Amino acid sequence: MSEQPAVTTLVDEIRRISYLESALDLLGWDQETAMPRGGAKTRARARGELTEIVHSAWQAPSFSDALRAAEDVVDGDGRSARLVREVRRRYDRRVRVPSSLAEETAIATSEAQTAWIEARSKNAFSQFAPHLERLLKLRRRTAEALRYEGESLYDALMDKYEPYGRAAKVRELGEQVKPTLIELVGKYAPICREVRRDFLSRPFPVEQQQAFGEQVLRDLGYDLERGLIAVSAHPFCSGISSPSDVRVTTRYTENDVKSALSGLIHECGHALYEQGFDPEWEGTPVAQAISMGIHESQSRLWENQIGTSPEFWSHYFPKLVDQFPDQLGDVELDEFVRAFNIVEPSLIRVEADEVTYNLHVLLRFELEQDLLEERLPVADLPTVWNQKMEEYLGLRPDSDATGCLQDIHWSMGAFGYFPTYFLGNVYSAQFYTAARAALPDLDQQISRGEFQPLRNWLRTEIHELGSVYSATEISERVSGTDLHADALLTYLKSKFETLYS
Amino acid sequence: MSEQPAVTTLVDEIRRISYLESALDLLGWDQETAMPRGGAKTRARARGELTEIVHSAWQAPSFSDALRAAEDVVDGDGRSARLVREVRRRYDRRVRVPSSLAEETAIATSEAQTAWIEARSKNAFSQFAPHLERLLKLRRRTAEALRYEGESLYDALMDKYEPYGRAAKVRELGEQVKPTLIELVGKYAPICREVRRDFLSRPFPVEQQQAFGEQVLRDLGYDLERGLIAVSAHPFCSGISSPSDVRVTTRYTENDVKSALSGLIHECGHALYEQGFDPEWEGTPVAQAISMGIHESQSRLWENQIGTSPEFWSHYFPKLVDQFPDQLGDVELDEFVRAFNIVEPSLIRVEADEVTYNLHVLLRFELEQDLLEERLPVADLPTVWNQKMEEYLGLRPDSDATGCLQDIHWSMGAFGYFPTYFLGNVYSAQFYTAARAALPDLDQQISRGEFQPLRNWLRTEIHELGSVYSATEISERVSGTDLHADALLTYLKSKFETLYS
Question: How far is Cα A438 from Cα A420, in angstroms, rounded to an integer?
């Protein structure tokens, strides 16, 4: 790269910080995958200390000087100008929140998480309610401090996860999809109750699951020279230094052949995104994720559009049977695919299928927006949650633990995160539609286990743009339009029609 | 702990730095045990960046202010005074070396390591010689800059690994032990050539070796709630945050049942030392190692005095046979113990047995001292090395790769490190003699697999002292005398007499 000196200086500053962020990411990765229990206390302090140092680095006069100097020399809409603009966006978000507020929030969050664990174990929302109240107040103050040019306080918070995202747009998309989703659940849940599925929960030895999953990830194009597969309590992907070191985890259950594999393919989608960044720009916004929604679009595309499809399984089912002849010898391919795609309303989001998942997420989005904008009193949350569950999924939680206390997000003060799960699904359907138009042989390629054409297309169209194009710009470049829900609805209707009718 | 406020402030400063050092240790641990190859470049930069931040933290005015303020309030010889004195010692070592010299050394070291790898692969010492010359010059300058109150420039460097150590003392001990060691080699090597050993290199499946090794470490008292066993190219122990997170590695070879297990027990000895520090003082010199010699005494004591003894194997051999009946069913306990303890001169230090090992180390110590003090020209190193090998072990290397290029230490500029291996053996024999006097049933306890009495004794007498007592003080407290070689010679003579006569 040959940049103007002021831009190079800014890039150097950003990179220096990225090395520390890489260390922070490793502290987190190790905590989830390896650290013995005894290390927890010191680890929390080490992460705190390093977080503070990163924060100071952003706030150093040398950094703001470098930023201003770079802003003075770039113009237009090229990569340098976009890079500098993205650094400015992040910088403003960081420095606008007063340290005192950040500290107060950190303490409140830590206390809220402890209270949430306790409240959940006792099924007692009232124990968590005052903490939620306090966090909402603090997050409103943060949203104000950000002086965000969105339409609402909620937008200011969502911007952390989905830059330039708008709650109004999410609500509009939500209203558009909900009736159809509810209709699909009504139509396919009864059919699926009759679908044979016993073989999915036969004993599948964990070591063989591991070997099979690793082979699938290699086939999909996950590069183990720049990656690692580990085990943790909850599957996740961590870019220790993307694109050169991007790791994934999953968890294995012997009596469940679907869960670990689906989790791995999901995390692999995240990892392919980060391994697809331009290595020359490692440690800068050119090689970083633009938004959680786009990130999730990549994981969901590989997990759902690819990993649950009849084409995918026409290639992999014979291999799975070879690996597990005793468990799957009496199962036909189409039986397996139907079992793998069962639609079934349940109380728990993280166990939800492809159709009901969006309803779980929209419910949370609507409630958290109402909480933040003071249209819903905290005390009413359990009641309204349960009403909405009944309305969307026909189920009523029998406890707060399986109701409004099930997710960690609110106890972390992460308001505005949930919609990115939904946006990820919307984007993934849009992108997949565009990919099929661009690659007319895609279905046949998947059936043959050829993933390189799709992966290359995603890399060129999405991954390599890093965070210097907004999610909207990416969407428009890829599919010719801004975010819309038609692709998602068409995909779901057609898929389940083919599978179960 | 209730300390004077100025001491508490200093402890807080030291602890804050220790959190960053913990992150640095984790970056190193991960690099050796998990990191994919692709992450290497960024990892090197992340370590560099964090190292610089740690260095700046030591050099911050707030730190020297806190140190002086603490020095003003402590007196006498209590724990606080000792703690402050140890911080001062480390502080002086750090700040006395000018940054320019530190940077020059870092660059020279990095280049020397690349050259060393190349030279070793080509058996060409001449390629490494100019780098060694340059590093020696730089280290002499460092030794001068340290203004160390020892007897020689070598002492100033050795002080980094063995605080208050003296080359003259090592030389005196070396002269004392060498004749006996050479005599023991001459006596037992011929006998050992006749000792049956084929069964040690039968195929021992790695997974079973792992399970057996883990059980032994648990029995020895290694706490896996505060530890972790991993695999790496070379065995090591890393205190990520001692005593709360202390990890070990080993490497497994199928056709070698001794190597991985000996390595594990050795690293376990290191780990028991660090797990034995006082948790209340974590992150301070009260809970840190005093010297590499003392550290090595702990690893060698468990590896040799315990882990190769007939008592140890009278307990474990039946268990090993249970684990590997096909491989060891035709072997008797005493055959096994004799094979495990074979004395056999070889060219490579890291493969050496308990008797020859010290000769390998003394050779290096003598040569590096002569190099540093300009009594030996760099160009003559291979010749003198080979002469000494002939003199001490009766072997002559057929190449530089198996001669003076075999170890990484000099390419890292680590002059003064080698004697700590020898000192470790000297201390371990002294300590073990004292332990046997203090615990009259020790042999019987080991035969029954009871390690707690010995471990507790070591903890109280050595581990809990951390680095606020010098190695000499520890030696005097434990064995009533300063460092001496009699215990080592008595131990070796008696052990091999019993085994092979």
Answer: 26
**Distance from C-alpha of A151 to C-alpha of B426, rounded to nearest angstrom:** 74
Q: Is the pLDDT of residue A416 over 60?
A: yes
* CA B327 – CA B254 distance, rounded (Å): 12
Q: Do B22 and A46 touch (CB under 8 A)?
A: yes
Amino acid at A25: D
Spell out which chain A residues touch chain B, with contact meaning CB-CB distance below 8 angstroms: 15-16, 19-20, 22-24, 26-27, 30, 34-39, 41-43, 45-46, 48-50, 53, 223-228, 230, 240-241, 244-245, 247, 282-283
Q: Which helix (H) or strand (E) holds B229?
A: strand B227-231
Residue B253 identity: T
Q: Find, among B194, B191, B300, the residue nearest to B237 by Cα.
A: B300
pLDDT band at B2 (very low <50, low <70, confident <90, very high): low
CB contacts of B228 in chain A (<8 Å) are: 34-36
| End-to-end alpha carbon distance in chain A | 55
ipTM over 0.90: yes
Alpha helix ranges (H) inside B60-205: 61-73, 79-96, 99-121, 125-145, 153-158, 167-193
Q: How many CB atoms lie within 10 A of CB A281?
A: 20
Nearest-CA distance from B254 to chain A in Å?
20
Prediction pTM value: 0.95
Question: What are the CA-CA distances from residue B437 to residues B236, B426, B427, B441, B442 (Å)?
Answer: 31, 17, 15, 9, 9
Chain A with chain B: Cβ pairs closer than 8 A = 116
Q: Encoding tokens for residue B111?
A: 């280049």
Calpha distance B312→B210 (Å, rounded): 19
